[in-house]
Amino acid sequence: MRREIMLVLLVLLLGTAAHAFAGEAILTVKAGETLHAMSQTLYGVFFEDINHAADGGLYAELLNNRSFEQENLLDPQRFDHYTGWQFNFGGGKGKIALQEEEPLNANNPHYVRFTVSEAGYQAANAGFGASTVTGGISVKSGMTYDFYVWLRSADYTGTVTAALMDRQGTLYSDVLTFTPGEEWTRYTGLLNADVPEGTQAAYLVFTFNGTGTVDLDMASLMPADRIGSTWPGGGVRRDLTEALKALHPRFLRFPGGCVAEGSYVRSNFYNWKDTVGPVEERKENYNTWGYMQSYGLGFYEYFCLCEEIGALPLPVVHAGLLCQSREAQEAPIPMDELDAYVQDVLDLIEFARGGTDTVWGALRAEMGHPEPFDLRWLAIGNENWGDVYFKRYAVISEAVKEAWPDITTIVAAGPVADNSSAWSVIRSRYADSMVDEHYYMDSDWFPAHVSRYDSYPRTTQVFLGEYAAHEEAVSGRRPNNLYSALCEAAYLTGIERNSDVVAMCCYAPLLARSGMDQWTPDLIWFDADSVLLTPNYYIQQMFSATLGTSVVSSELSGAELYQVATRTGNCLYVKVVNLSGEPCRLTLLLDQVPDGEASLLMLSGESAAVNSFAAPETVTPVSEVRPVSAGVLTDTLPGYAAAIYSIPLE
Ligand code: AHR
To answer: Whose CA is nearest to atom 2 of ligand 1?
Structure first.
């Protein structure tokens, strides 16, 4: 009775207050009326080494082109084997020569020979740029850095030192001293940084204090404070890893994107075997976004990263085809030569899951992880289409299913939202695969298509592997503004409502180093020192942190809002998005909900608002509480807002 009286009062109240709000809405939620179970792997992240996401980004290596393998077959003017290095940095006299004879190993064929004629000659690595405007490496006082370098000498007399210093030679760390021997040897040490306040970026500087010839290869500098320092690749940047973890990702899709495929020439295929084993033996390759991949963040490290951030691994392998979006490229692997590649794919699964008595399982154990990784899915192909793709997909996925029947293979549905022709092939031939959809659309497309999955047959599971709301570019870059994030939020209400058919989804791309980006928008921006979280990031985080176990009945009347209601055993989540610029008075009518307090997490602001390095908290979620009484919660949603109410059910 009390509830009925409240409702009558409420309706009267809404009537009298109508002039104050452009919108009013009543959302009736029946927590006891379950519609379907929700996918427990719905939200994840998609990592690709685009925008220097890996090298110069998540990968903890601070030196750029540490092993002189940098080259770009497509654009030789852009990079060369000396990229990132400066020679004749200080005094002394010497010559340098790029060498290939008797290298460190066959996979790491280039090194630099220093022929020093006057002691004091210096060479320096400038890192990836301490900021968007200056070169150098950002090092911090009081921090320790792990360093190593491979050296060899036949006739050198004297020592080689390594230290951090500025461009003028002011020391920023202690000095490590090595006496190179006749064989390639790895020399290691710790550098403790002491950087005066407000000074410039540092360089890692080698000083040749003797004369003669020294060969140098594979130098490395990583902050001791990183995650994964025992991984053979060396580990990942702590702040970025923590930002990923805070998204509560259920899975990690890697290593691309187009990167997983490679472009133009078959030697550019992403070969997972090149990315495992001792780090100095990994065979580098340039990536499709124009720079070199050191592979220090390789497949082993990706699997470890998954464990670190609490995500399940979702590797993508190419389907014997280079990135089809790029034209004028080498032909795919012929069908009658596919066997060797199929074996590579099976070897990858063995690497992840095989016993330590198998060849690849043994390598995994040797690298530090005897236990298998929890590999459940394998995507074969990225953005592919046509018979040329499906024929190869069929062969590879059949082989996988035969050897590992519990692994779900994922088939690509091409690069566009209008993918019905791909779906008709898939439904007729590969209905038991999961289907990877990709689409980047104007922001307004997303709310307009919130019902996209309502009509999808429930027989085949969808993986929305890449999506993002695109705004018009400003100065060449599409902004990560609040409006785009809210359009994604509106769309996610539709995804959640259809999470019986959409099993997984992830925003793309994930990371971008400021000033070194090739693609916008991106979920997380960073520079040498800081991490910038976008409004789009916060939406992903808010939705992922409040993943229900089932979708419950909800019905909206009144103003146009986007909404979904889900629940766990003891909590009801109501997600509401207001895409209009006007506030809306919202009434939640809730059954089976005790009196108490709901917590509210809300992202709102100016539609064009963005976060920037100068003002990183312009758009951040705020937490508040709202009373729930007699099954009613009333609130005023601001214009341009996404709100998530977490309402205790007991
Ligand atoms: O996410 C950026 C790129 O977009 C991916 O590499 C590719 O799959 C898509 O075209």
So the answer is: 509
Q: Is the peptide bond before 370 cis (omega within 30 degrees of 0)?
A: no
Q: Which atom of ligand 1 is nearest to the CA of 383?
A: 8
Q: Give the residue from 192, 188, 187 showing the smallest Cα distance to 172.
A: 192
Read off the DSSP letter of residue 225: S
Ligand 1: residue whose CA is nearest its atom 4? 257
Atom number of ligand 1 nearest to Cα 48: 6
Active site residue 281: no
C-alpha dihedral over 414, 416, 418, 423, to 10 degrees? Answer: 20
Give 216's strand partners: 112, 151
Cβ proximity of 562 and 547 under 8 Å? no
How far, in Å, CA of 419 to CA of 385, rounded? 10
- The pLDDT of residue 644: 99
- Ligand 1 centroid–CA 244 distance in Å is 19
- d(Cα 50, Cα 318) in Å, to the nearest integer? 17
- List all residues 6 or more positions away from 361 whose beta carbon is below 8 Å from its beta carbon: 350, 351, 353, 354, 355, 372
Give 289's DSSP letter. Answer: T
| pLDDT attached to residue 79 | 74
- pTM for the full predicted model: 0.96
Mutate to test the pocket of ligand 1, among 47, 383, 511, 536 (most ligand atoms within 8 A of CB): 383
Chain centroid, CA 341 distance in Å: 26
- The three-state secondary structure class of 397 is helix
Q: How far apart are CA 460 and CA 422, in angstroms?
A: 13
Could you give the CA distance from residue 389 to residue 31 in angstroms, rounded to a whole number?
45
pLDDT value for 18? 41
Name residues of the chain where pLDDT drops below 50: 1-2, 4-20
Q: Tokens for 431?
A: 């209905």
Q: How far is the centre of ligand 1, averaged over its atoms, from the C-alpha of 449 (Å)?
A: 21
Q: Dihedral of CA 348/353/358/360: which sign?
A: positive
SS3 label, residue 125: strand
Beta strands 524-526; 511-513: pairing state:
parallel
* Per-residue model confidence (pLDDT) at position 76: 67
Backbone angles phi, psi at 523, to 5 degrees: -70, -40
Instruction: Kindly report the protein residue whose alpha carbon is nearest to atom 9 of ligand 1.
Output: 257
Closest-CA residue to 34 (of 497, 463, 489, 492): 497
Catalytic residue among 383, 471, 488, 496: 383
Burial class (CB in 10 A: 0-12, 13-18, 19+), 52: buried
CA end-to-end distance (rounded Å), the chain: 21
Span from the CA of 257 to the centroid of ligand 1 (angstroms): 5
